[in-house]
Q: What sequence folds into this?
C-alpha cells in the first residue's frame, strides 16, 4: 500500500523541514523538525491491513500530520431522492463513527509512534463517498498583523453572517484561497522545494 502525501504550505521539502524563526511548539524546535517526506510510506507500512480501501491521504505541515482514509461504502439501497441521499449520508456518518470507536486504541498507539518519529502531532479522518469527517485536529494560533482595510474585510464577513468572528472569517478566507488557487499554490510549493534543494547543495 503506497501512501499519498500532500505537503502543506510549510511542508517539509526534499532537503529537510522548512524551519521557523525561533518558534517552539510542544517543546519541539521548528528548526530541528525531522524531515517528514517519508511519512506516507512509513504509515502505509504501519497501518493495519483492511482499515482503508486504499492508500490514505497523508497531509504534512510543520505542526501536524493528518491521515484520512477511505472506508468501504455503506450497504443498503437508497433511492436517488433528497430523503434517500440524506439516509445514505447518515449511514456513512454512522459507519465512520463506528470506525473511530473501534480503532481508537490502535490509532493512539500509531499516533504516538509517528509523533516520536516526526515530532509532529497526528490527527485522523475517514471518508465514505462524499461524506468526510476529521477527528480531533490541532488548532494552531497564527500571529497576524492586519491593517484597517484587511480588518474591514473580516468585519464585513462577520457582519454579513458569513463568519462568526474575525478568526473564523480569516479561516474562511484561507479556505477560499486554497480552493481557487490550487495550481498557483502547487507552482509556489514546487519553487520552494527547488530553493531548498539549491540551498542544501550550496554553490558549485
A:
Amino acid at each position: 500500500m503506497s501512501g499519498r502525501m500532500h505537503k502543506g504550505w510549510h511542508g517539509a521539502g526534499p532537503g529537510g523541514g522548512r524551519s521557523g524563526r525561533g518558534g517552539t511548539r510542544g517543546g519541539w524546535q521548528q528548526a530541528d523538525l525531522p524531515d517528514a517526506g517519508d511519512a506516507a510510506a512509513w504509515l502505509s507500512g504501519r497501518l493495519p491491513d483492511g482499515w482503508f480501501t486504499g492508500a490514505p491521504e497523508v497531509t504534512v505541515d510543520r505542526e501536524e500530520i493528518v491521515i484520512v482514509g477511505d472506508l468501504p461504502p455503506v450497504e443498503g439501497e437508497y433511492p436517488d431522492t433528497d430523503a434517500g441521499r440524506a439516509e445514505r449520508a447518515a449511514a456513512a456518518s454512522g459507519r465512520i463513527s463506528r470506525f473511530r470507536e473501534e480503532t481508537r486504541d490502535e490509532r493512539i498507539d500509531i499516533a504516538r509512534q509517528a509523533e516520536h518519529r516526526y515530532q509532529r502531532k497526528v490527527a485522523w479522518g475517514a471518508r465514505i463517498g462524499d461524506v468526510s469527517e476529521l477527528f480531533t485536529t490541532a488548532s494552531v494560533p497564527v500571529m497576524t498583523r492586519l491593517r484597517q482595510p484587511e480588518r474591514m474585510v473580516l468585519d464585513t464577513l462577520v457582519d454579513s453572517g458569513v463568519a462568526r468572528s474575525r478568526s473564523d472569517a480569516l479561516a474562511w478566507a484561507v479556505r477560499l484561497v486554497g480552493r481557487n488557487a490550487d495550481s498557483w499554490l502547487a507552482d509556489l510549493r514546487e519553487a520552494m522545494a527547488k530553493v531548498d534543494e539549491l540551498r542544501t547543495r550550496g554553490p558549485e
Remarks:
- Strands lie at 4-7, 24-25, 28-29, 57-60, 64-70, 121-128, 131-134.
